[in-house]
User: Fold these one by one.
Assistant:
Number 1:
Amino acid sequence: MSSAQLEIQLIACLVAIACAIPGTFLVLRKMAMISDAISHSILPGIVIGFFITQDLNSPLLILLAALTGILTVVLVEYIQKTGLVKEDTAIGLVFPALFSIGVIMIAKNANDVHLDVDAVLLGELAFAPFDRLIISGADVGPKSLWIIGTILAITVGLLFAFFKELKISTFDAGLAASLGFSPVAIHYGLMTVSSVTTVGAFDAVGAILVVALMIAPAATAYLLTNELKRMLIYAICFGVCSAISGYWVAHWLDASIAGSITTMLGILFLAVYLFAPNKGVIAVLYREKQQRTEVSLLTFLLHLKNHTDERERHVNHLNEHINWQKVRSKSVLDLALKNNMILLDNNIVSLTEKGEAFTSKAINYIITNKDAQIEDMKDDFFLFRG
Amino acid sequence: MDVTEYIKLVFTDYTLRTITLGTAILGAVTGMLGSFAVLRKQSLLGDAISHAALPGIAIAFLLTGAKNSNILLLGALISGLIGTFWIRGIVKKTHLKSDTALGLILSLFFGFGMLLLTFIQKQPNANQAGLDKYLFGQAATLLESDVWMMAIVTGICLSVLLLFWKEFKILLFDADYTKTLGFHTKFIDILITSFIVLAIVLGLQTVGVVLMSAMLLAPAAAARQWTNSLSMMVLLAAIFGAFSGVFGTAISASQNNLSTGPVIVIVASVFVLVSFIFSPTRGLLFKQIRFIKNRRDLQLHKTLAFMYNIVESHENISHPHAIKILNNFQGYTKSTLQKLVRKNYVTIDGNMWSFTEEGFKAATNLYNQQINNNE
């Protein structure tokens, strides 16, 4: 592994961490699409900054572009406040307009600037190690490494300094306001960090793929935990893992590094989406199926309790009267038998004592239907699992 | 190049005619379907779908090696649909919110698409150039067959829209009621979403994946400001969209180095801006005017009510009072008094004012109305 390869991976990892931190909060605050809007609309800021400085890595350019990002947020909020359109429409109107202005500015000056839309949108990590930062003649490393390192340091510093405030205002803006933290200040602070990070990362992974690095690790982490600190740590881990694995996939396929990092993120998300222990699709489907069976069982027991007539309690009757398929009635019957709720005598079903007690309890719950009671009842209802 | 010359050119020049017609049709169909997206609060779905279509284009190219735009668009359609249904799956099955789901699918699919595009570019197959145009769109590459394709799809959209108009409308405004009436809501929902995907995919070649969402939203958002009726809105959105296409093409054709997609988006944004400001009922300008007018009316009423309180204690309603005593009152200004005089509610005689018969009646009614309202 050459030093250039090492540097590329280091930059990719730093970008991933710097994106994962604000990304976690954006996902929790339901503002994920704002990051998409910012990533597009910084283009005119970058172009104007580039005209002034002629250097894609100058701090002034980063500042101007970050200002455009904040301008986007302000514009979206203003349009939303007029009540003419909904928030999502406001986002969808603002960023394409700003982005178009950026594209046109580039196109009109294409002959005398070294800047093209592809580079801004897609970035080229592979060239990052060639742009070195030279301080008094000494080579101290690639420029983008320093830029993203600085941004990351600031982000981490802010995170530790304002963790409590961020946490409260994210989960309960009203409480935060009443405790004296200004939700508005925190909101714009977060927006500023997001847009600075987006700008800082754009020449490494490109503006659009910053969105992937912000949202995907956070969303993946959110499927695995409900705790903020753990979510942050998971998100950072996912980001770093896909950055490194993405680099090697790109190396192997000889394709865009940013693209393959995103693809790795996608694969990771898909895996967690399907297999997450509690919130994954498979777990959810399984739980839904179990709940359906439980409800069926309850219906069945209630039916038994209501009818003393033997005809009503015959096994075949289940298929006709309650309108269940054969398989389903059999699985419900088996479940009830296994839990000693019913007795089968010559295909006539009757409740056992345990079944009687349980059914009375269930009826009692259904009739009174107080929310507070469900907590105790849960243990009883979910008795038969496994 | 002046306007008449340009118009003549539109009818004679093959390329210009094709592009103008293509962008106009595209604007109309996206405006039409965009109205539904905006009203269903799915505005950003367009953005997600257009990005999600990219890997489909790349895979279609990898599989067939064809540059035929219809096959590539079929790939885009399939991958757009996969993206859409995955978004629905995420929102339905997990606790992730729709914005996260949209951003996730958008960026992941786009990243995967970029991976494939760069992979294709490194292939020895010389045929590959031209996929880039789907990123930012190149209206100049439109062929007459593409325009025919658009026209046919627009025709299908229009007929489906007319056929299911009632269902779409009722689902839009009251989904629960639709269900109780026995309509198959899931089917209608999937139908309208699929057509939105179709419209987006159609526009990829012209406007590109990045800006396609604006084509969907802007005409609809502009049209929304002028009307409260769905049919009117769809019609207006189609007109706005078509005009954005025509004007955008004209502007970009008259200048060097201007790509059509961004210009169309800017023209559409101007439509939105104008609608936001100048629409008679919802527009910001008229809203502000109404606001000022209401404030003035309120001040006038306050002055009148205050005067009424004074006059009430006298037997003769036309008994003159000094203007001075009004001075401490908040709503009173010289101009409000002048206005009252002009309305013939009050007469002024030197430093004194007195109510007329008419003014007293108006003030009494004002007072009663207030009491009635309070009850």
Number 2:
Amino acid sequence: MQHAMKCNTYLVLLVCILAYAFPAWAGIDLTAVSQSREIQITIYNPADLTLVADSRILPLAQGMNQIRFSWAGTRIDPTSLSLAVTDAPTAVTIEQMRFPPDTKDLAIWHVFAEKSCTAEINISYFTSGIFWEPHYMAFLSPDRSRIRLTGYVRIQNRSGEDYDNVRIRLVVGKIHLLDRISDLAQRPYPHGRPEPDSLDNRQQDAFARGKALLESAPAMAVQKSMAAFAPKKIEKTGVSEYFLYTIEGTQTIAHGWSSQLVSFDAPAVLAKTIYVYDDLQFGAQPVQMLSFTNDTDAGLGKFPLPGGGFRVFHKIDQKGGMIFAGTAETDYIPVGKKAGLILGPDPRVTVAPKVTKFAKTKLAFDDQGNLSGFDDVRTMALEITNFSDMPAAFEITRQMPDPDFTITDISGQDRFEKIDQTRFTFFVTLDPVTKKTIRYTITTYKGDRKWQQTPVPSS
Amino acid sequence: MAADTCPIFMRLPDHKGLGLKTLMAGWFILLMGLGSILALPGASFARTQLATLPLQEQVFIRLAGRNTALVQEKRVLALVAGINKIDFSWQNVHIDPDAVYLDTLADPDDIALLSVARPPDASALVWEIYSSRDTDQPVVISYLLAGLDNLVTYTALADDQENTLDLDARLILRNFSGQDFDNTLFWLTPDTVFNTRLQHRETRQIQFFEQKDLPVVKAYDWDGRTMPHDPENAPHAPGIPTGYKIKNTSDAGLGTCDLVSGKTRIFQEDGRDGTIFSGEDVMPFVPKGGTAFLKIGNSRDILVFKRRIHREQTRVRRNNKGAVQVFDEIITDRFILENTKAVPVILTLTDTISGQWEPVNMGHAYTLTDHETLVFDIHLDAKEKKTIDLTYKVINTFTGNFARYNKIAPGN
């Protein structure tokens, strides 16, 4: 495999017959540019972190060899540079690595080989500037019972380095980092210096790097094997607390480009459109929520879905006609869990809560004759309208300011559920172009009445 | 569609050995001078044409009433067997790149979208499409375009007796998207689809609905929460809001579709073959089956006075020191209504009685919209003056710390 011409990292083998073999450095200098055998990049989200594993074949001379690695114009974290000998026919020892004082963005490994040989090595490092993010498109069926859900991963390369024909893995999960890789990549000295840098130096250095990056921006590089005639598959596996997406085959991502691949395509995911009314959370209008569960029954459930943006369209015919239903963001959706996409209000459905009767009862007085408590009794009506041309399912959540209440005489709902000590939800479905009223009575205990009985919430 | 305002399609040359920068240079040249390059016959790009600009067969624009419209373009792509690179780029328009969708309308074994790439610093997508054979493939490309939206305005003409309205609805298309549209189908609702041309920076008004002789009710709405209770002594008595109540129902001549919110200018026949401008209001969104009130102005010919004429405390309870703790009140409010017009009117009177109360002797039928809001529909003959007394009892009025519980706080 070949690195693209615009590659900014270079690996140079400098075989030096060192002092104990020959009395002077002057002897034979052999320099060769090594070619990558395989590069694998593992891109994290949301951290700006990519692990690059670069496998190469190196010819080594007997004695001490210098392997030079430079990365000018990239966003590589020099503190993460690592070289490992993965296969060699003789003993090969990595003695040390140094960053020369007068040359920026250069590391030199000193590798001792007992005999001349060809060794397989692996160079790994962190870089910043490569990002991936998921996003989704959902196409709601005309009857809104199913969605075609297509997940995409978008990989964006702003690292300053072209990655040509590399294997790509994407990691879903939050990783703990002490330093930002982008900060480490911009330090003037790989591991810093004892005294702090002046701000001016850092700014100048950052400016110089930015300019170099701009000047080095390559032209586009979208090339593809003619043999690959199908979209690349993305294999998903769980690793510890992370989920790993491995993209089939190799992929080229030139600096500045982004690439979008289909992560999965679920053609008929069971979905439900409900109208959620919760005035404290969404205001006075019910909002349309498209929900689905990430499980096998629904047509998903093989892997968690990373959080991302959804664009939702409603198909209205079989000829590709559709209308834009809205956008929504979701957090990480574990397997088996439900996701709800809030698509905004629909003026054709309304929920209006009203107090239809108000009374103060069971007045309590202390031994001095002072009013010390009473029951606040309210008869409530939730007037619900569905002027749309489809059945509408509602989830109406109400919240009381304090927990000392009972709810009784509930009617008109399909189901009632108490969520916690102050919140409760009514579930009801309305036919097209109909109205319905849910009624209930709330009794709230004020003052000493709180202590004169134990409220037992009904269910 | 203007060539300089995109979206622009082209097939990128699928030519081995063509350098990346060469491709980019070619892309710009093609963009700027497509005609001249196409004029070079037999260029060295083998079995793919140098560039193809697939013609739009049909363009649908689905309007959502917001700043973004969903554009759906049906085009025919000339695909060759193998991998085709199709460049979808745009300039001077704002398209959400994450909401661009290519539907090949084909069996995935024949034609498959392999990948999508976005070039650096360019508003473009490059689709990589595999085709099993040379074919002209219809596709639908959907994208969200900003700067294109619609308004609705209404014009209503009332007859001189104010019993009916002629309602005329106009759709205002505003295109500031940067893109011209020729022969485009605009879709407002399933029942409202029309074909027109719309250029960039063009605003076009189209009549999409007209209904004659809609029955309406002229209404006068007095609301005690906002209107002065003694209008003759109020410094700037505004008059009673008046207008037309309209129903979006089939028996009222409508009811076939939702009425979209929009500015409504109302005129009235003056009885002399002319019209006068009565006023304007915003028609709210009126779903099928819903009602709306269109205000045309304020009437000073209907007068409403509200006076409290009696208040009596009963059932007073005191503590051991004689301080009042709880009491009830019997209250009588008097409404004096006067129609100075020479025609009868229907006055809708809305008032509130806060707290816990019960009626004692209410002088007119009413409906309760909630526990404290009473609505009276009152007929007043020409030049009629009417008095209505409402007597009610407010129960369990607290004093001291508990006084805050006498009324339900707004929003509680």
Number 3:
Amino acid sequence: MTFEIPRETNPGKIIEVTIGATSDQGGTRSRSVTIGGSTALPFHFFEGLHPHRPVVAMEVFDKAPAKYPDSLREYYQDVLDKPGEMARRCVADFGAEMVSVRLEGTHPEKGGRSTEEAVEVVKDVLAAVEVPLIITGHSHFEKNNEVMKKVCEATAGENCLINYVETNNYKTIAAACLAYHHTLVAQTPIDVNLAKQLNILLTDINFPQDRLVMDPLTGALGYGLEYSYSIMERIRNEGLAGDRMLGFPMLITPGAECAKVKEARATEKDNPHWGDEKRRGAYWEIATAMSLLIAGADLLIMDHPQAVKVVRKQIAEMFHPNKEGGHGSLRA
Amino acid sequence: MRKAFKVEFLPFRSTHSFARGTNLLDAIRKAGLPLKSTCGGKGTCGECLVRIEGGEARIRTSAALPEEVRRLGYALACQTEIEEDLTVELPRFEEQSIRTVAGSRFFEEHRDRISGVFEVNPVVRKIQVSVPAATLSDNSSDLRRLQRQIHKEKGLRCLQAEHRVLKKLAAAVREKEGEVTAILVKTGPGWTLVDLQPNPPSKNLCGLACDIGTTTVVCEIADLEDGRVLSTTTGFNQQLRCGEDVISRIDYARRPGRLQELQTLAVQTINALAEKSCREAGISSDDIYYVSVAGNTTMTHLLLGLDPRFIREEPYIPTMNLVPMVKASDLGLNVNPEARVHCAPAVGSYVGGDITAGLLSTPILRDAEKTSLFIDAGTNGELVIGNRDWLATCACSAGPAFEGGGTKCGLPAIEGAIEAVTISKSGDLAYRVIGGGKPKGLCGSGLVDLLAGLFVHGYLDRSGKLDQERAGKRLVRNGEGTGFLVEKAPRSYWGRDLILTEKDITNLIRTKGAIFSACALLLKNIGLTFDQLDAVYIAGGFGQHLDVDNAIRIGLLPDLDREKFHYLGNTSLSGAYLVLLSEKNRELVNAIAGKMTYIELNAEPGYMNEYTGSLFLPHTDIGLFPSVKKFLRPGKRLDD
């Protein structure tokens, strides 16, 4: 008698979203990235299809965050303030499949850089790498809207992933995305209903469903990861069950989340029993990222080059058609 | 330089003396007069608006008081200091009286449906008997002869007599050949003699029904001989100054002396309204021999001067659910000192006498076949589901948004409140004001209409955000944020713009969300779905009418056949009134309390999920609202 894995089939399918545009598609990227399309829970190859692998992006900054961990600075040193060069390093040396340009420096309380400067940074990165870009903003609505509008205009046709809008501030940025052909991140604070509500609001103003990615706002390991996990899993289950307003690919940001927690940053000198911070920082990010991949993450913005390496390898192995524990062995 | 000044407060005609420089809001509180203020005297809420009729005061400028309003003589009490003798007019909430859907009107409309309850057989009786004179061969005492005669002529067993009556007895039975008018109250198995009326006796035998709500209090006087409602008055609960909801009142009561203060405020509120009711009804307060109170558990505790502290501390236990009869004079109520006070019993800490009394005024208790839902959308929302054979109940903290609190433009359903609103596709706004004058604000029914109108015509997105472009000329932006202009300053009662702010909208959505999600959860708990309900009875301080269609459009009520809904208005008051009318009702209401199964929603893991799902227009899951869904098309307004 052979054991048969019980199978659940789902009526729904996660919407496929393509980010970045090649010259054929009206942009300048060497290739575009497609996420979503799953018809089963993550890595359940025996239950449905996963036509696209989860994608790992890395992040560069218009202004290096004041609290950027020392263990990460080592990898970039001189290029931390040169977003174009840093992006190139992320792609060429560390295998980033996309690059996120974080424009936190335009926040009036975090540098107050001008919109023009922000546009220059984005153009710089766009010229430096050929992968699709994510443009990451901040929570100061007024300034962020102004910056995002200009950046959308300056990168028209590139189909960047504009990260992000929230329930109290979505119209301006969504309109700019529509006008200049970009894809959008809808961010809501760890709640299934709130996530669905923002997606409804966006589709109510005719924002196309195949250009929408959700960020359910996740925490780092030790900072509510279990809760994040269960919310993501519920969102994915609803999406697969056929709720179109929850059937979007999900973006997570384990890099930024882990970079701010003490347990990942603290030095061994200060906490001898916690061990080497370089490895610990990477482990923390790996644990966070891998957990949330299982919960349904489709796109990850990460910081630690070692963590990126491990997570990409894990994804590749899971998707490998023949390898033990991979795609093939799990297929029913 | 004088150090003290006299301030006369209108319309109360009370004059008090205060030291130079006393803050006017403090002065008003010292004088024990009602005035709402929610910002704690910071000059930001604009609610303590008064008019300086005589004298000059030092008034600090404040963003909440527009210059043109100030020029008309208005001032914010909290921003005003007394520097000479003043005459100050306070808002006339206590003076305003409107008919609510209760009492007489309630019964004109619902007599058929609730027949069997509407009988006049109260626990207070006025009887005339002639007591035979004592003789040497009949040497029974005066009381014994009176008791015997009451039994002989009226068939009532009078077992006890109040000390106060005994003092009058000897003289009374010897005047007018022993003709006496006695007032009896049913206490336990027999009756107690509580009064002997002078000759000629008063023409009236009255009862006072009182709904004591967290936000508003309504008093109604009924003739106990034929059941007629003689007058109804509504006012704010004077405890409002000590906190807007029950939790803040319970916290307030924890400091020494504060419990007594809250008890006094409750009594003062009732006394002020009862006095006004008596005047309107043309009766004397001494004619009131029976008081029937219905209030939530906390209000009942505070009225009786019981410590409410353990209501809010786990495991949430009240002092008692079934309240023994007390004497009006023991509480300080300004009615006949011998009057008995009945408080409707509670089921638990968060399902109180307002609900047990409320249920009495619905047909639910008489129906064995159907399953009905009863929603009391007060500050503390309560729900009951069931029929004659079983009842389950739960509470939710809904907030006061539909009864005048928690929103900038909200009012209880009093004169001057907008009670109905229609908005045309082109944005023209029409409304109806209670009493017909200039509007002061909106009561619950008006807010429901306004919210639904704005939503249907695309002024709001589904999260309740205003579409600024669409709002056009009606868009208002000021220090408090963005809002929708309902009426311009010159056409409003207070001479300031009447605005529904985005914050108000958020509060309204939270309130309706709390009520709807509690309904959904209660049904789920019992294993029923909305469409299995045969009837939905709605109570609350919305006003005289509630547009069910609009209430469904905003997701306050479930999307069912409109015929299933019955808006009953203030059922707590109706229930208190029914208790006045008949002994059977009193026994029924006491029995209801013991029958209900109480479900604690806080312990439900699904609560937050249901709640956040409801914080949307009409709901995140549009499948629950098919009649609204058919209007919704992405990128289109509902009216397109």
Number 4:
Amino acid sequence: MTRKPVDTGDPDRLYMITGGRTRTDDSFDLVTLVVTESEPTAGMQSEHVRILEMCRHPTALVEVAAEMKLPITVVRILLGDLLATGRISARHPPSPRSAASLPDTDLLKEVLHGLRNL
Amino acid sequence: MPHTAPPRRSRPTGVLRTSAAVPAAVLLLAAAGVGAAVAAAPDAARTWTGATAATGWLCLAAALLVHHLLLRRARGTAAAKEAEVERLTAQSAQQLAESAHLVNVTVPALVTRLRDGAPADDTLAKTAQPSDARLRQVVQVFASAMEAAAQRAAALDAERLRAQQALADVHEEVERLTREVLPAAVAQVQDGSSADTVLAQWGLPSSSPLCEPVDAFVRELAVSERRASVAREASAKALSRVQAKTVSMLADLREMQERHGEEVFGDLLNLDHSTSQLGLMTDRLALLMGGRSSRAWNKPIVMESILRGAAGRIAAYHRVRLHCSTKAAISGFAAEGIMHLLAELMDNAANFSPPIDEVHVYVDEHSAGIVVTIEDSGLKMAGAAMRRAEEAVSGKLTDLAALQGTRLGLAVVGGLSVRYGVSVNYRPSSRGGTGVVVLLPPQLLAQRREPGPAETAPRRPAAPAAPGPAPSPAPSVPSVPSVPSVPEVHSAVPEVHSAVDEASGSTAVRPAPERPAAGQPAPADAAAGGADGPARSAAAEGPGLDAPRRPRSSTPNGLPVRAPGRTMADAERERDRRQASDESAGSRGGPGSAPSPARNAGARFGAFHSGRKSAGGADTSGTGIPLPDPPDSDSEPPAP
């Protein structure tokens, strides 16, 4: 018989984490900053607890997802739960007004070149 | 009678003597009378008288003579008769005596001797024969008949003894067969011995009447046993392939869930759920067939994950409400079994309750272990049904033959509960349905340790180290190292890190949720071999990482040690790198200045990078998730 496969992942399936929900509201995008507003309470889902602990300092959604090793969609659902109960607040970073306001690509390249030469 | 004979013989002689004297006396008296008459008679008549008297006396004398003669003749005849009678009496007495002797002595002696088996002729020669020919004949006939009868009786007796012996033999053989041979033979056959082997050891001699039935029985049993075991093995083997496929499908699905965006996420979750249910069914059959679970965990699994893993495998997972506040974890070796056990019980509860009602699962931690209560609000189980369920989950019915139709889940629960020492009890639920109380004994629980800085810290800062000069042996290391345009960022990172680490190393204590992540080997480790995993996690939980890990890369003499599944060149490279990292670590104050788990620039960059990719849905390489912990996370890159 072949050797038993050893699992390194988690037994949780994502639909158990989201409770079967697959749709998110649009209040979060990748760079939305999330801040904890209240301490975790007993009986909360462990992912919620982790998010609350992680976001004591403003943290971007995508960072939360990376830290928790969960897909963005799942994190959006979880953050949506917390937002709905007022345990977090979300803040959108100032969106770039237009492409013209961004620094010129050539300028950036020069900066990069300069940095390399340091 | 002999003593009566002499008087009879003496009597006739007396009669004879008296009979001869009486006539003589009569004649003398008569002669005297005649003389007196003659003398008294006148002379004239004397002549006449004398003549007449003489004539009369003569007549009397003649008559007496005749009488005497006749008497003598009659006496002779009577004597002859007497003698005849006497002879006959004697003869009869003798015969009487002989017959009495015959009856009282001879015949019993004959019977005794003939019964003892002596031949009739010898016996007759030895016994006194009666003088009478007829009696002799009778004795002979009797003797021969008796001999024949004795012979027949002896023959019959021998035959009876033989038959009795044979019967006793057969009885003994049957006894031995039922008491020793058959149980031993059945046990051997069930252990997998062939019928010929068993028969050679236990078979009866071919002369025995039981030989044939026993032979046939053992062969038939061996055939059916073999059929059953082949069927079991074949199905276990086939199921193990399905299990492997299911696990890899689940892994693929998880990867796709990471990679693709929201538009297909729901479909992927549906597929995931179906595959999980398939896994439960496959595992159930595999366990019944003597196979194994499809998965094995090499780290403790917290109860919440256990419950969610269990509930996620049943169709009606959205009806299961989990109430779990304990932070206890189940040891890796038992985690899969416990998950399966709970999944079966939840499935049962969900199937036997109305489709709108919820199934509540409570977890309580006691000193006796963890108590999981699964309560439904369906119909109360009838007494008989509850007894049957109790019996099934008790694990006493280990034989497949005891299964009822398609009710397989509880039998699997029984097997698992016996294997892990879990007690499963049914009781009526206060919610109106049935409750199942599962007690997980303390030996299944993972040791709970307070996470220290050394336990969680060292893995994190090394994230950017992997893409350094020493390439990871696993080509599937995630996207961070494979990004070609960021070497500058990486080379700058370690210093940033260690600065952060020194600042926060003593105070940054990650709370409990971090711990499983620390014990979890990165994918590259899994690629290097499953045996590496437990050792690695053990090392990760130790107080210091460098000390336990160094012996694995080189012997005390400096020879490189090759981990299973790695090439020697890899091991050599790692040794070089390790030496370099030791130097650099020493220059920075040693491993005591463990870096902090705070997110760093590299991790941030990786997070954004992969998040952008997965959100865009265009990425097709790697897992798509940033791994802050590449496999060689505990080694520092060489000083640039």
